[in-house]
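Contributing new complexes? Match this layout with zinc ion.
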Amino acid sequence: MSGERKARRHCKAFTYAPKIDDVRSGKCKQTIRPLGDVQKGDIITFHGWNCKACGDEYEWNYKELYPFCPKCKTKHSYRTSLWSWRLEVEVKDVQLIEVYKEGIIWMGTFFAWNDLDRLAKKDGIRRIGDFGYGESMGFLLNKMYPKLPFYKRHSNRRPNGEPSMIIRWY
Ligand SMILES: [Zn+2]
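Output block (do not edit by hand):
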């Protein structure tokens, strides 16, 4: 059935400031997200968010729960924001994973965060203090999605957590 599916278009925002330049320059071509219906061949428009009040780009760092405007400190919401930069890409590869507080299940195997340095580097993650890349990614994902596993609260179908995905593009 999925073979018959037509390519679709998606929009996804980036607010993790350290990663934005890497994505825009093409250095980073990967993101880890809760499940949407993204498949190979789909087109994704990535974008940043600007503060409507003063035009500055929202930034997110591991100390905050929500992205905020660095100038006026407004918290990002869909009402207070406008799209800033945008980048259209074609999806090259999608891998389903399950994200837990302690690590991820990927290709049927559980990996603790400190075993995921390579994946985290590829994802454009910056180290937090003395934490390694993988541990820093775990810290960020736990902060961005306080109710890991992703979307468990929306589903009784998968008591062990909803799949997320590693999305890569050309
Ligand atoms: Zn502002």
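Reviewers usually confirm one structural detail per submission. For this one: The longest strand covers residues 81-99.
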